[in-house]
Amino acid sequence: MPAKLIMGTEVREKILEEITAEVAQIKKKHGVVPGLVTILVGQNPASISYVTLKVQTAHRVGFKEVQDSQSEKISEKELLALIDKYNKDDTINGILVQLPLPKHIDEKKVLNAIDPDKDVDGFHPVNVGRLMIGGKEVKYPPCTPAGIQELIVRSGVETSGAEVVVVGRSNIVGKPIANMMLQKGPGANSTVTVVHTRTKNMDLHCKRADILIVAAGVPGLVKPEWIKPGACVIDVGVNRVGEKVSEKTGKKIAILKGDVDFDAAKEIAGWITPVPGGVGPMTITMLMKNTLKSLKFKLGIA
Ligand code: NAP
Predict the structure, then answer these.
(1) Ligand 1 — pocket residues by CB below 6 A?
(2) How far is CA 174 from CA 5, 41, 165, 180, 193, in A?
(3) For labeling, which of 21, 206, 211, 290 is most exposed (least CB within 10 Å)?
(4) Which atom of ligand 1 is nearest the CA belonging to 282?
């Protein structure tokens, strides 16, 4: 029987509705809404389209959204001063600096200047540490891994005692999701293996997985014969493999493929995420969730 599709597009709608309802309730009771600032430096087209999507989503759920666009000539000192301004701004609960930054600016320095309590991306070393400790210490899980966990949990896949294999060990996906799945608590309690380019017999590790999370950025890396029958397969990979003309707009759009051979894998897996439409829509959704959480921490209602 073909796998059940885990549609991030549908889960996103559900979560955004939940957030919208909660924002309206908080506004009624406390007279405030979450504030999110997105700092965009320069005119990188991909960054502009990500930021536009974030702004649209923030408006949709009823946040106060500040889009702060800066010239690519801004100095590091000026950018740090801007972050300091938003760190001190009581109406702002989340600060997001869209990457990449121009070469003359030290990205790490800038990201580390964000108040960890407003770091809704969850990349500040303080939040990475909180994630490692787990439990109530965790404030802002990084958005893509948080989206992955949400998809697994909302699909009813058992995580407790499950063998989870993560392909990839990046700081933004592989390492944090591995850490999250092994924590003690609901939606986790898994036995986790992380594989990467130096792993021997990667196929044998993958074959053991009840939950296989693939974030390598290599189209078709995971072969159908590496998948345990009935496993939950989460394909994080987004690979541009060509272009096509959109039927809707008539414009050229990228053809995207995941890291898993989807057509063959869906005949073996129990659950699977498609690319696009699986993990992708979850990242901005979880950013909204983290920003709402930030306001709730401030109000003491989290
Ligand atoms: P990354 O920083 O390039 O890391 C890739 C990881 O995969 C590395 O740890 C690498 O191992 C491992 N890897 C690469 N090729 C491999 C192979 N042949 N065998 C085994 N391991 C291999 O990538 P990332 O930022 O984590 O992103 C991974 C993919 O997810 C990309 O396609 C990206 O576009 C996508 N992504 C999607 C979202 C979203 O949907 N919202 C968000 C983030 C990322 P080594 O460490 O040994 O080099």
Answers:
(1) 144, 167-170, 172-174, 195-198, 202, 215-218, 221, 236-239, 279-280, 283
(2) 22, 27, 10, 10, 10
(3) 21
(4) 41
